[in-house]
Amino acid sequence: METKFEREKHIYRSDAFEEIIKDTIRFFNGTPVHTLPPPVRFNGTGVYAIYYTGKSEYYKALYEQNRLEFHQPIYVGKAVPGGWRQAKDGKVGVVTFELFRRLNEHAKSIKQAKNLEQEDFYCRFMILEDGANHLIGTVEAALIRHYRPVWNTSIDGFGNHDPGSGRYNQARSEWDTIHPGRPWADKCLGQSSSIDRVEEKAAKYFTLKNGKDAE
Q1: Which domain holds residue 68?
Q2: Would residue 23 count as lying in a domain?
């Protein structure tokens, strides 16, 4: 039996939910900062932020924001349990190192880039396990909305993986255009953005963000 459509009856609201997200972000921002990758292998899944403290011409504003304290991430990401995207529950008692592995992958990408130095990068992370791992995607999205990191919102491709044999007809990412060096990215033969275009996007990002931060 068809009922009258009333949009209000479909809207979910919860002050408790909003407070949980705020609390996770407060906890995240209070976690220790480590080198990238972290010095000790650890198990767990969760969310992370990467900070830049170097003097690249592209990210000079980040040097000023992060040279004394870590205020503005250059990238925010997540590491989820195996099978998470297919809604599969992880096996009880199985120890995974997804978060540590993901940070190591990023460290390798930065090390391969010809115009970045690995020692200029640091990270912080929050482990979300058991039932809390259902919040991983939500917390990641909240951090991205709050900080608008340049490698999330303006220059894409940092978190990309090797597409594998037979898939190199795709374009090289903007990140690989402005930071060449990953061997697999050089195999991508699709039409890519020009270096001038990507540099323009980076400059525009910091002009707009600094303007908003000053408001």
Answers
A1: 30-162
A2: no
Contact 190, 173 (CB under 8 A): no
In whole angstroms, give the CA distance from residue 25 to residue 6: 34
pLDDT tens profile 25-50: 999 999 999 999 999 999 999 999 99
Q: Is 188 a domain residue? A: no
**Count of Cβ atoms closer than 10 Å to residue 54 Cβ:** 18
Distance CA 19, CA 24 (A): 9
Q: Cα–Cα distance between 133 and 140 in angstroms, integer?
A: 11
Query: Which phi and psi (to 5°) does residue 212 adopt?
Result: -70, -40
What's the token pair of residue 46? 């969760």
- Counted domains in the chain: 1
Q: Which residue has the tokens 């609201």?
A: 13
Alpha helices in the chain (DSSP H): 15-29, 60-66, 98-112, 136-147, 150-153, 174-178, 195-214
Segment 48-87, tens digit of pLDDT: 999 999 999 999 999 999 988 999 999 999 999 875 454 4
Enter the pTM of the model: 0.90
Q: Is residue 80 part of a domain?
A: yes
Half-sphere CA count of 98, side-chain side, radius 13 A: 23
